[in-house]
Structure formats: C-alpha cells, structure tokens
Amino acid sequence: MEFEDLSEYLYHVSTGPQADQGEIVDPILSLAFCMSSNPGAYACLLGSGLSQAASIRTGWEVTQDLIRRVALLRNEECIPDPDTWYRQVFDQEPGYVSVVAALAHTPTERRNLLKPFFEPATGATREAPEQSTRAHLAIARLAKKGYIRLILTTNLDRLCEAALREVGVTPVVISNADQLKGAVPLVHSACTVVKLNGDYLDIRTKNTVDELQKYDRSISKLLDRVFDEYGLLVCGWSATWDEALIGALERCKSRRYSTYWTARGGRLGESAAKIVGAKSAQVISITDADQFFEDLESKVLAIEDLHRANPVEGEVALAQLKEFLVDPSKRIRLRDLLARQTDELTQRLAAEDFSFVQPASRRPEVLAHRISRLESLTEGMVGLVSCGAYYGEEEHNEIWVQAIERIAQPKFKREDGVAVVSALMYYPGFLLMWAASLGAYLAERYGFLDQLLARTSVRVQGGEKGPLIFALARDNILSTETWRSLPGISETEMAGDHIRDVLLLSVKCPLPDEEKFRDLFDDFEYLLALIYVDTCRVALGHAYCTPPIGPYFMRREFVEARIQPAVLAGEHWLGLQQGLFGQDPARLQKAIDVVRRGGWSSRG
After folding, report:
1. For residues 65 and 118, what is the distance between their CA atoms, to the nearest angstrom?
2. Is 46 in a helix, a strand, or coil?
3. Coil vs helix vs strand at 55
4. From 247's CA, which of 35, 255, 360, 411 has a CA 20 to 30 Å away?
C-alpha cells in the first residue's frame, strides 16, 4: 500500500487492523513523531556501542586487550581465546571491571591505564578516536534544532561533546557531582551531556564493579528526575555492568513518555530485556547506530517539512499566482504573494543556519544532507518562479527578478563559514535562476532570459556585483570536486544530471515526457552556456572563458544540430530579435565557437 505522506501513513498505523492487536508498525516512525511533537522531551542514553565506529573500543574489547597484555607479561600465550586462558589462570570470570581493578588499584592508575585506548600514540595504524561518528553528528544536528536537549552517556570519551561543538552547539557537560552542583538547570540549558561514569581525563571515573554499583546522591536524584520527566531513547548500552544506572531505571515507575530501546538485530541481553519489559519499552531493531540515527533524523526532518512546507499551501499559492497573472487588476496581489513567499523562504533558510565553521560541515554526508535540505526548502518557490516565467508577460518580469535577487544574496558573513559550505548558501538562488530560465525558455521568452541572466546584477560571496549567470555559475556553488565527493555519486554522473532531475520534479510549467525532457534540457543548458561565455566576453571583458561543462557537453554534436536552424536564421531567430547576444549574429557564432572548444580565448 502506498501513502501520500507521513500523516496518511501514521493514520493508517493508528487505525488499521494492526492497531487493534496492540502492535506498533515501524517504531522508528513512531519515535520520530513523538520527538517532533515533543521537542526536547526525549533524553538519549548512549553506551559504548555508539562509539565503535570511531574506533573507541568497548569494555569487552578493552578487556581482551588487557588480558593479552597480562599473558605477555607472564610469558604465556592466550590466543585464540583470552577469556578461557584468564579463567584457567585466575579462576574467575574475565569481566572488564574485574580485569581493570586487578591491574590498576587506584583511580589515577586506572585513568592512566585506560588513557591509551582513547588517545592512541601518534602514527598508530588504528584510526584515531575523538572523530565524531555519523551517529554522533546526527544526534548533534537534532540537538541543534532542539529535538534533543539531554544526553546521558556511560562512555568516558568526548565524542558527544565534539560532535555538538562541530555543529555549533556548546553543551553543558556534567561528569561528576561537583559539576552538577554548579550546572545550569536542565530546563534552561539548550543541551546538557551527563557523563554518568565520568570523563577519561578525570581520576573520578567509574570502572570497577564497586564503583558502578553506586552513584553520588546528587547524581542519583538527577536520574530519578530525568527518568520520571523525560522519555528515553537507549542506544549502544547493554545494561550489564552499570548497577547504579539499572537501579535508577528500575526505581522509576512513571511513564509520562515512552521508552525506545535499540538493539542490533532486535536481540537483547537478559538484563536489558528485563528493563524493557518493566518499562513496556518499544524495541527498535537496528543494523548499526550510524544508520539508525541518520534514519531517525531524516524522518524527524520530513515531519518538520510537513508542518513548515505544507504541500496544500504550495498548491494554493500556485493557484493564486495563476489567477493573479491573468487579471491585471490583481497585479499588486501578485507582487504581495511573491514577496510573502520570498520572505518565508528567506526565514526558513536562515533558520537552518547552514553557514557554521565546524569541521563536520565539510564531510560528504553532511554536504549531501545540506544539498537535499536546500532543495526541499526551495521546492515551492521553484514551482512559483518557473510558472510565472512561463505564463507571465513582460510587465511581470521585475517581480520574478526581485524575488530571485533576494534569495541569491543571503545575509551572512562569508568568513564565518567553511568555503564549500558558504558557496552552498547560494544554491537556492541558483535553483530559482535555473527554474525561471527554464520556464522562460519553454515559452520562448528570450527577452526575459536576457534580462534575468545578463542584465540582472548581484553581489555574492563578498565580491563585486556581476551578472546573475556569472555570479551564480554552477561551478562557483557546486564544484565538480564537491559533487564527486558526495556519497553514492558514480563516475559518470554529473551535477547537471542531478539539477535536471530536481527541476523535472519541481517546476510547474508544461513539460514533455522524461525522455524528451533530457534533449530539451540539453538544449536549454547549451543556450545558458552560450549566454555565459557571451556575458564573460562582452559585459565583463574577460580575455579567457571556460563555459560551464554539463551533460550537454557530452552530447554537444546533437545539440548543435538541433540549434543549427536558429543559427542559420541569423537576425531572424526569435532569440536575437528579443535581445539575446545584443541582437548580433556574430556574437552568437563567437559564443558557439567558444563552447565547442570548451573554452579558450573569448576575444580572438
């Protein structure tokens, strides 16, 4: 069964036959709706399993390594089964806490013993820790948007804090009772990280059985409050050693919000299963934490889009635009409609805060997420300007131009952002420019193409004002290097292919079928390349020019064959008559020669 959107799917889940049987279909979707409806009401409880992807070892892996060291010191061999060797030699179970306690007798000794596992020596072959995982970054992004405000962790590492800072969130960190006394109250903190077992650089870390059996009284009181007042999302925690934490969960009998417990393959240990049963928790079967949290983030943001960019509202705005276009008496209402839609898009883009400096913003998966979000936020406006450019008349041109000018010049300081991320801030303006140009091209409104692309000037990326087609050139915004770095991009797929697909789904003017649209888009992209090199040569006086290389370039012989009648028509071609290339056939031919060569001198 297919559904139009998440709301329809949720209705099906809540009213279908499975609802009568008390079953929850897709608990991650249920969690996403709960988090979306109750921002900040769910706390994350994270265990060592979350840090494995960052090469931070779990307690069991540390235990195995320490046993091997003990065997080496005794000049004995414990491979391939360190656990069996330890039992035979010491007549006890080789638990993480017992092995650590046997090797280091004081908190300071234990800290120094464990430190190498969190800070490997320079040149180690193992990937260095303290590199936030995809899961940590997804959690951090949800925290930045206010969906997660409290993180409890049994881990000693600093991956949570690092991820939060990478996305621009400065958390309140509590790793001992003293820090709790002076901490900002949870209700007033944008994000709090409570490190229940301490920090690996703090001598008060909890590692042994005795240490894990009891928390400081103030920490226990905090947990009682959290488990009573917050919902809970558990990931990467086995509930095996942390007796004090287990006790706090068992003490809480209230269920104001649900508890969700993730488990690889849906398999729970005995202790975890007991807690899940007592709290009637929803078990979410996962493959790994990275995939789970990215999936959760995607669903939460999809629900957010349902509220922030209602498809019905978009259709209403489009219907209004068409109504206002055909009625000259409603021109003021048309202008107001576009101004209002432009204001809303500007506010949505500003709310996303895409321009932060943090290293995480350079990561391919983060860039891919950002591009997708920008396309989603801009989709409604793309439909409006493409429709307006197609159906509008000359007196309407300035309305579309003004809207695109505003989106093409976002207000942020370039020096405050990573270069490739700052460039993407202009991606919405780029999409609107292409959408309006495509609508005008399909309607053979070449005069508007000339006005928009060659005679509209904007200032972008801190530079001087320049023609729109040059300022928002694709390579300035989504370079080949950036595009090739994105996950899942094949060697033959070009950014132009993706942009064509985005516009095919978003523009709201008559289009041919998908197969014919590819040829049409090649012709359109080729014409934009001609306008680009002509603008470089004439308007900007550049001595050298490299045209934007897109999918059309691979098929340019066929494109040139299709455009040949226009070239042969010379001054009688409609494009020249309406103002393209200064109405000069020689300039058109010169642009064709430059594009055919893929660049070279634009003067010779």
Report:
1. 13
2. strand
3. coil
4. 35
- C-alpha to C-alpha distance for 254 and 231, rounded to whole angstroms: 10
Q: Residue 267 is encoded by which pair of tokens?
A: 């398999």
Of residues 290, 262, 463, 287, the one with CA closest to residue 363: 290
pLDDT in tens, 220-256: 999 999 999 899 999 998 888 788 899 999 888 877 7
**Alpha-helical runs (H) found in 154-288:** 159-166, 177-181, 209-212, 217-229, 243-251, 270-279
Could you read off the pLDDT of 478-518 as tens digits, one per residue? 888 888 887 767 667 788 888 998 998 889 988 888 778 88
Q: Is the pTM of this model over 0.90?
A: no
Q: Is 217 exposed, middle or buried (0-12, 13-18, 19+ CB in 10 A)?
A: exposed
Q: Counting every residue, how long is the chain?
A: 604
> What are 11's two structure tokens?
């209705």
Q: 469-495 as b/e, with b when 16 or more CB fall inside 10 Å?
A: bbbbbbebbbeeebbebbeebeeeebb
Terminal CA-CA length for the chain: 62
CA distances in angstroms from 370 to 48, 172, 198, 445, 473, listed in the order given:
29, 27, 34, 33, 19
Q: How far is CA 26 from the centre of its chain?
A: 22
Give, for 160, the enclosing helix (H) or strand (E): helix 159-166
Q: What is the maximum span of the chain, computed from C-alpha positions, in angstroms? A: 97
Single-letter residue type at 81: D
C-alpha atoms less than 13 angstroms from C-alpha of 556 in its C-beta half-sphere: 18
Q: Specify the amino acid at residue 416.
A: D
CATH 3.40.50.1220 occupies which residues in the chain?
26-51+130-204+217-291
- Superfamily name and number for 26-51+130-204+217-291: TPP-binding domain (3.40.50.1220)
Percent helix, strand, coil in the chain, to 5, is 60, 5, 30
